[in-house]
């Protein structure tokens, strides 16, 4: 079934390879947060950069969304309160170096499951002694 779309861009699902639909995010959230590219086959989706039709990264299914949440849970405290406080780019530059990735490819939004897991592992290991860098689920 072909749907009308306002996007000139063709974005294909990262999981099944089908062409995605360009729809309002309210189909997912019940409230509009802008447009998304959605694969109904996998229920995978990705948002767009503000005022553009450019996807924010790869499409994420439920599994990847959970891993990205987990990665943000350990990464965000680094630049919100921790050793990179107020310097999100510096935190990403540090992570890029540790992961051996180019800095422009080092964004949790672009990560796949394996990269999320690797990032979490690195952050947990490297920030063990930090007061705020510690993994949030660590009870100590
Ligand atoms: Zn798909």
Number of helices: 4
Name the hetero compounds present. Answer: zinc ion
Largest sheet: 3 strands, antiparallel
Order of helices and strands: EHEEHHH
Describe the protein.
35% of the residues lie in helices and 9% in strands. Helix 2 packs parallel to helix 4 (113-126). It has a three-stranded antiparallel sheet. Mean pLDDT is 89; it is low at 133-140. It is of the alpha+beta class. It binds zinc ion. Zinc ion binds at residues 13, 15-16, 18, 39, 41-42, 44.
Features:
140 residues, alpha+beta, three-stranded antiparallel sheet, 4 helices, elongated, binds zinc ion
Q: What's the SSE blueprint?
A:
Layout: E1 21-24, H1 26-29, E2 35-39, E3 44-47, H2 62-80, H3 88-99, H4 113-126
Antiparallel strand pairs: 1-2, 2-3
Helix pairs in contact: 2-4
Zinc ion is lined by residues 13, 15-16, 18, 39, 41-42, 44.
Short description:
With 140 residues, the chain is α+β, with helices and mostly antiparallel strands.
């Amino acid at each position: 079934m072909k749907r009308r779309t306002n996007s000139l861009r063709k974005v294909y699902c990262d999981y099944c390879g089908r062409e995605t639909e360009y729809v309002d995010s309210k189909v997912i959230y019940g409230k509009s947060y802008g447009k998304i590219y959605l694969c109904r086959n996998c229920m995978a989706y990705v948002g767009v950069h503000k005022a553009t039709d450019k996807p924010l990264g790869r499409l994420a299914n439920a599994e990847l969304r959970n891993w990205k949440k987990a990665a943000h849970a350990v990464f965000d405290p680094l630049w919100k309160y921790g050793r990179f406080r107020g310097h999100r780019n510096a935190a990403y530059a540090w992570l890029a170096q540790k992961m051996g990735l180019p800095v422009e490819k080092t964004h949790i939004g672009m990560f796949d499951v394996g990269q999320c897991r690797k990032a979490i592992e690195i952050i947990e290991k490297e920030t063990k002694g930090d007061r705020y860098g510690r993994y949030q689920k660590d009870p100590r």
